[in-house]
Amino acid sequence: MTEITIRRPDDWHVHLRDDAMLEAVLPFTARQFGRAIVMPNLAAPVTTPAMAADYRRRILQALPDEKAAENFIPLMTCYLTDDTAVNDIQNGYADGVFAAAKLYPANATTNSAHGVTDITRLEPVFAKMQEMGMPLLLHGEVTDPAVDIFDREAVYIDQVLTPLIEEFPTLKIVMEHVTTKDAVKFVRAHKGQMAATITAHHLMISRNDIFAGGIRPHRYCLPIAKREVHRLALREAATSGDSCFFLGTDTAPHPIDDKEAACGCAGIFTAANALELYTQVFDEENALDRLEGFASLHGPAFYGMDANEGSVTLVKENWRVPGTIAVPDGSSVHPFRAGETLNWKLKN
Ligand code: NCD
Ligand code: ZN
Hints:
Elements lengths: L2 E5 L3 E4 L4 H14 L2 E4 L10 H14 L3 H6 L1 E7 L6 H9 L3 E6 L19 H10 L3 E3 L13 H16 L5 E3 L5 H9 L4 E5 L1 H5 L2 H4 L17 H12 L5 E3 L8 H4 L14 H11 L6 H13 L7 E10 L4 E2 L5 E2 L7 E7 L1
Parallel strand pairs: 2-3, 3-4, 4-5, 5-6, 6-7, 7-8, 8-9
Antiparallel strand pairs: 1-10, 10-13, 11-12
This protein binds N-carbamoyl-L-aspartate (NCD) and zinc ion (ZN).
């Protein structure tokens, strides 16, 4: 196959940031995807419907042109804290401002200092979400420094997720950016109630790639890439046709200076070539016929939305990913696979 057309896909997990960075990265997402679930972990986290409505306005204003404005809808999320009010969740969802709520365990990742320290305090919020059918999006890693960084997802499944789904058996849960065979198995076992997003980079790199010939800050993200056996399990899951797995890039841009530093930030920027990366993986797995399900159909079905109208076409053609992408404030970001050749290209 040298060309593939699929229904316009969605990105169910994206960091668009704000200000100059928003302006730099948003056109890439809007060009490929009909909708995106926008993460709320801004420096001042998006915790109320009013903040989400403001952020949505800023995103819409930053869209590059009319075509993008016609084709792209940002779906907003609520950043859960120990003090999230049931009313805010209820009203935000009922008014169509919030599409979902995001749970970051406190200090699990970038801008998560305000995250949840005690999940039991959120029980009334989860009960309301369950009643309304509002999805809960989990950053599924424990934060106990005594737990090895490569085990944090698997331990989260045992210690937090298992009791959570027992207590809330019909709460819709998306385990975001899964990185382990353990998560794949768990999500499959709870299909219907649960789904998972899978990033392009976790399909492409294992932990060895983070240390290939030296330390590679642009391959560092959270959850961190795991052993090869896990990468292979993710590739199997993504390309299986199983509706509980769908596309979520977790594109997480940081200025290069913040990545190439003594203490570099977690996050990989894949928005510039996301669909091309996924298509390459599906091609390598001889599963191009399953790309549309993963990218365009399973996500909306889980969220209870219609699939997008319209389509995108990719052609099998070599192209070189640029080395850096400029941000209007003078900084720049490093796209995943910068300077390397990809063999699928989005046509539009
Ligand atoms: C994300 C970010 O930079 O906001 N970083 C990352 O490594 N994925 C936060 C997150 O999703 O964990
Ligand atoms: Zn993320």
